[in-house]
Amino acid sequence: MLPFAYRVFQAIVQEQTFYRAAQTLNVTPSAISHSVNQLEKELGFPLFIRNRTGVELTPDGESVLPLIQGVINAEDRLQQAAANINGMNAGSVRLGAFSSVCITWLPPIIRQFKQDFPQIDINLEQAGFSDIAAAVKTGRLDLGLSALPVAEKLTVLPLVKDEIYCITPNDFIPANRTTVTAADLVDQNFILQRGDYDKDTKAALDHYQIRPNALRFSIDDQSILAMVEAGMGMGILPELALERVSGNVNVYPFDQRFYRTICLVVNSEQAKAPSTAKMIAAITAYVAHKYPDKVLQHPHVG
């Protein structure tokens, strides 16, 4: 069986304090401290250092993190395989996703998944593209929904192309009345989320030579629409983000089309876990049903 100290290590990394780790594991803080001391003694070096807000990993702790996480994940896969052999369909899935996927895709996916596999626990974490890929690489997440390109060495399944649109005040009409061109964007300010100013969104803005000092940043997609509606500038949002937000604005394609490719990222070892494989199948089936004409071909995982 898995040493309890490994679970303690994992909980501290996730919660960033001994106290919250103790609450997560339903033990006393002194039990957490004792377990860490024993593990550090066994390994021969400190794992954590204290800071003003809690604790953080030492460089040596960072180096063993993926190894300990790998042992934990292997134990979880063993337990899931045993449960499946016994007909229980038990286990857990740790899924990471970015904002617009959390709002649009995941509610129906998770609702159906819980109906089909009620004994499989789902843990969801919302994060940015690069953070999701990094967490999947270390094994802290089993799989994630991100966007290409993915820097980490992971199994990547392209799912669908998501077109990027220009959001304008409702009294704005492009010169050609259908698409936004470079001439329409002269001296315009753009409003976007700071985390979105990378990859495909940045490529669109760079193509039209939008200066960095013409950018304004907002906290979420709905706020972007509110600021555009108030006449503070134009917005730039992908189609998926527009499904669950509303405002008195116009939505136009750019004259040169830009897309982001939404993808699944999976650690090849974690893809072997029965619960992870079931979630991959659930997500790909949902996308294929929702976008029958847009879904991308992707490789088999497992």
From TrEMBL:
Gene3D superfamilies for this protein: Periplasmic binding protein-like II, Winged helix-like DNA-binding domain superfamily/Winged helix DNA-binding domain
Domain HTH lysR-type: 1-58
Native source species: Levilactobacillus lanxiensis
InterPro entries: HTH-type_LysR_regulators (IPR050950), LysR_HTH_N (IPR000847), LysR_subst-bd (IPR005119), WH-like_DNA-bd_sf (IPR036388), WH_DNA-bd_sf (IPR036390)
Family (UniProt): Belongs to the LysR transcriptional regulatory family.
Pfam families: HTH_1, LysR_substrate
Alphabetized PROSITE patterns for the sequence: HTH_LYSR (PS50931)
Keyword vocabulary terms for this entry: DNA-binding, Transcription, Transcription regulation
Signal sequence bounds: none
Protein name listed in UniProt: LysR family transcriptional regulator
